[in-house]
Every structure is written in structure tokens, then in C-alpha cells.
Queue: 2 jobs
Job 1
Amino acid sequence: MGIPPKGLMRGSQKFERVTVTLVPTTDERSFRHIPSTFSPSNRTYAWRHYEKIEYMLVPRKISHSEIKVDIFLDLVKKRRMNDSSIQKFVQEFVNAKIQTDWKGLRLGAIGRPIVAEPPNKTFKRSTIEEILGANLEN
């Protein structure tokens, strides 16, 4: 069967997915701003820009003890990034976001980068579970 290529190619784009675990602090603001790039106007997840990388944030699990978020990275401009440099970039990105946008959360863990296709579904009905792409837990 062979080893799959490093990064999924769609046209000229290459995507990596890294799952991060965020841990809410005792601050109740933790759940006010769940990290996500969902666009209510387009009813789909959107790409955003940070430094030289395009990224998409898709929440996967939300509970009282943790929030798991898939971070999709478009590495077209950064073809030479290996797994450790991708994880280092994600760590710097998450720490910067915690300081500015994600107050009340702290970084718990960073998964290994894997080849993945980002969601491209448009949501007709916007239930919170559909928008977040996750099941809410107590």
C-alpha cells in the first residue's frame, strides 16, 4: 500500500491537522469564546491568517474539563516544516491566542500533525452542535 504523502494535496494546497487540548481555568469566561473560525454569514468554517500560515479552527469536544480543537494548517508557503516545527508553531500560536483572545483557557496538550481534509460542509440549520462540529458534554 505505501506511505501516504506528507500533507494532503487538494489542487496546490497542502493541509495538516493538529488537535490541541485546552483546559478551562476556574474563570467562567473560559466557555464564552470557544476557539472556532465558524462564519455565521457563510455557515461554514473559514480560513484565517496568522504570520505566514493560513489556519482553520474546528472544535471537536467541549466538556467541563477540556476543549479539543482541530487546527488545520495550510502549509503551501511553509513546505519545509517537519512534525516538530509544526508542533512548535502550533504551541506559539495557541500561547499567543491565550494571551489575547482565549483568556480563561490554558494549553493542555498538542497532538501530532496528521494529513487531513478540513471541513467544507455548509450548515443549513445552525444548532450549536452542528456549528461546533462536536457533541456537548456535561
Job 2
Amino acid sequence: MLRGEYNGPLVMGLQALQRVRVHGLASRQELNGLVGKALRYVQSKGRWEVLLDGATTGSTLAVRPENLEEVSPLDNGEQAACQLADVQLQDMPRAQSSAPSALPTPGSHAEALVAAAGRIQARCASGGHTSSARPSVLLEESLLPALLAFVDSTTLLHVTTVCTLLCTKVTHSDRLWAQRVVDDFGGTVERGATWSRMSTSSPLSVHCRLMELRRRFNEAVVLMEGDLCIVPCHVDVDAVVCPAVSTCGPYGPCARAVHLKAGLALLQHLHAEALPEIGGGVAVGEALATPSFDFRAVRAIIHAVGPTNRIPSKEIQKTTLRKTYDSAFEALEKVPGGPARRVAVASISTGGNGVSEFIAAPVAMAALRDAVCLGKLEKVYMVLYDHFTLGVFQEAKEEVMEHFNEEIEHLPPERFGHQM
């Protein structure tokens, strides 16, 4: 018994709040090898109440003392790995479609790996393994390749909770985490470290950072079908980003609706002040911030001038459109009353400008990913004008989630299931 680590009296060889492992069950063999916490000893039943790792509060098991064995407290590195597993359970996309989405279930690869991990630890602890290699080498040679082949990061980290040696090995294996970065996010460790502006290129640190940023992006970017001018009446936003022509006049359905909301004062401000200050017009790929005037649901309007389909090169359409989104998000920092952190954005260039939704959607999602993850935007409502366009943008968001560490705007349209 490790004295001083747990509270409460010693009962049947265990103490309350001690970490334990289940073993020797005949009727529920699938529980053997799982780890949890002994909550309290029930004298009338002669059993410990055990809360297994990953189980919901209140879902306890009644286990005889002889079917429990103590587990050494997790060190800091092991705690980090287990916390990371719990966080990733909330992460919606999965790196592999066949990977389990939660704790190991009967019949899964993970169940066999849990059992293998328990057997290997028992052999290592008892000195009964036949290999002359050290236990950590035995684990790496016999178990880690199988883990990498069959499970995603979530299950991998949960599996490590049944084996202290494996947990330590997984937590500190650069090779393993470098592979997980590629499998879970695409790209490379170096690309992830550079893009996310990290001072370290530790694969585990990069994986944690990318997971955090991907979750932030998923929660911050909301796609909806609707009217850009109506959305601010129902959700809290500071500004709207509206597709515009060079003069920022009421040309195009979205711009006309915005001008109607803002009133004549907007047009007068553009002609008298805003446009003369920048030479008479907004260049393609640029954006201009103005007050919202009578559009009282927001503080500012961002007029974004995107490319048209008259540009023959699709790559130039993409780079110009990306520049437009970046300019619009930069303009949010200059709005009256202070920077805008919550914004409603209409799809740029996909209306009268004629740029294909299959070109525009991945560019928009990549720009939003960077603005949310590397900038200061807190919430973005991407407003699409019909159900078809909404569907294309949803596909693009899913693609960003799956290839979070890649530049998806340069992927061929075939990746989205469409031929251009």
C-alpha cells in the first residue's frame, strides 16, 4: 500500500478514493483489466463501490475486494494523457471512420488491446515474461504497432489507463504522436507547429494544440441558411460582412438589403468621406469598414469586394477570394466602438459574381479557420442564401475539420465529391 496517497481507513486491503483495477471476474469478464476509483466500502454487501474511468457519475459497480488490485497513482505525464483522452471524446470528427467513438466496446479491436495490455503489465510486474528485453521495449515491440494500426487517439489514450508502463510510453513517444498528428489532422508536425505559432515542435504538444484549435473552430463557426440582415435580429453580432462592388453601392441582393437597413446616410457617407479617402473605390480583394447608421442591430458594416468568374484562372479566383476574406476580417479590427469579435458573414463572390460554390466554400472555411484560431474572432455566423449553397459549405467545413492541418483551399474539387 502506498501510504499518504489516499484518504480514509484501510478496508480489506484498500482505501477510499484509491485507484484500482478489476480482475478475476467470471460472470463479467469484459470488465477485467479496466481501471477506476474505489469510492466506498459497503459493509452490508461486503463489496467496494467502484467508478470505472469514463463511466458517468452514479454508474458504479459493486466488486468484491478479492477482485480488485491497487493501481499506482498516475504521474503528471499520465494524467495529461488521460485528460487529453477525455477532451478528445468531445471532438466531433474522427481520423478513421472505423475507429471507436468512445470507450472500448465488446468485440472491438480496443477490447483485445486492453486485455493484451493488462496481460503484458502482469507479466512485466511478475517478471514472468520470457523476452530478455526490458518491459518498456517489450511493450513497444508487441503492443504499440497494433495500437497505431487499429485505434484512433481517443481509444489509444483510454487503453493506456489500464497499463502504467504503456501510458508512460505513449505519453513520451514522439514517433507515435507524430503519426497521430498526421492521421488526425493531416499535414506534418512541422507545419502544425508553424501554422499554430508554437515555440515548440514537440509532436504531443502540437497534437494538443491542434485539437484545441479544431474544437474552437467547430464551436465558433455556425453555418445557416437565411438573410444577412435578419440574422443580427436573432443573434448577438457586432458587424456584418457584405459582398460589394468597388463603389460599395446597393448593387446585388445582399448589398441592396444592407443599404435599405442602413438608410441613405450610408450612401452619403460613402460618397462624401469613405471612398474619397481611399481613392474613389475599393479594389478587388479588399474590404472597407463603415458605420451601420440605421442598421441598429450591428455597429458596423464591412463591404468586401470579391473576384468574379471573369477571372479565367481558378487558382487566381481562389487567391483573390482568400485575400478578400482576410481583408474583411482585418477590417473588423477598425470598426467604430472597438474591434468586432462576433460577426455575420455572407458568402462572397458566389452570387452575381458567379464564382462556383465549390471553389468559394473551401476558401471561406480556411479563412475562417485562421481568423478564429489565430485571430480574435469569437463567433462567426456564415449566412448562405439557399439550401444548396449551405450544403456545399457544410461539406467544406467537414473537410477543414478532417484536414485541419492542411490548406484545403488548394485541394481539387473532386475531394468534395464534385467535378468542376
